# Entry
Amino acid sequence: MSVITVERKILEKNEQIAKRNRDLFQEQGIVVLNFVSSPGAGKTSILEKTLQELRGSLKIAVIEGDVQTDLDAQRVARYEVPVVQIVTLGGCHLEAKLVQDALQNLDLNGLDLLFIENVGNLVCPANYDLGEAIKVVVLSTTEGDDKPLKYPGMFLNSSVLIINKIDLIPYVNCNLSAMKKNALQINPSLRIFEVSCFTEAGIPEWCTWLRKKDVSGQ
Amino acid sequence: MISIEQVAAMHELGIAQNVLQIVQQSVPEKSAADVRSIRVRVGRLSGVVADSLEFCFSAIVSQTDMQRANLEIESVPIISECQDCLQRFQMDDLGFFCPNCKSTNLRLISGRELEVVEIVLADEGDEAL
# Structure
């Protein structure tokens, strides 16, 4: 028997391409956000409200990831921003290479912000760096306050948590302070925003914070 | 309808393909048939299900020269170090606080691993293997 020592990361290829994406974004001065959540948490709705608030003053583009359709891209396109659709055909997450390919169809010149909407899934997207500066996990009040404990990988790897659908709190079994406590227990440095895309509560605070971000996410 | 299990399997399929690619890059082509074992390390926070990975790997490896290669998965526990009392402990129930002093000021020591560690090949002498 002979043994070959390898010691290589299985996702090293993804990490190399993610680094290339990140270098490109920094060079171009673009703040890039990767939105992750379970299906139906409200990623697209938050993007719509954010575009509505910021598109007058900032140059924004969107990359939409979807398993099967371009329905979300159609919604975002109404805000008259460049949008590129990635259909993963069953794939459960976006990878850095898919984003790199999507960039071929996007004019990065002069862009301030790039939003990447990942596939709705709280497991695998946590492990695939796309080159973003800020990973935003969206959690809605209808999903229950224990989700951070059930999907710790996602909350550990994100730097921002947006709690959506706060207008529904009186009608659902969600303890907002328990949800925040659970999230901060997994990741004490999470920046938390509480929003409702229906009443638009919290959207201005989120957008004000976003305006101040630089390419490294600081 | 695509079931959750199918989606998970697709995720592990990509991981299995990456493992195979790393092995193909590490072993000279003429020795591919001699590969008996591929040791990988999978952390409990990596989001990879060992059974699914094994299943996907066996499906794709059967189409290569490495049919006799077996995937050995070492599951790595989530271990944290408390930054207040410096106790190191294993987290089994994903309660992210120190069992000693209840602090949540923790540093992750292990649990995110996703690596190919080593490859074991049969030599000419051990044909029985």
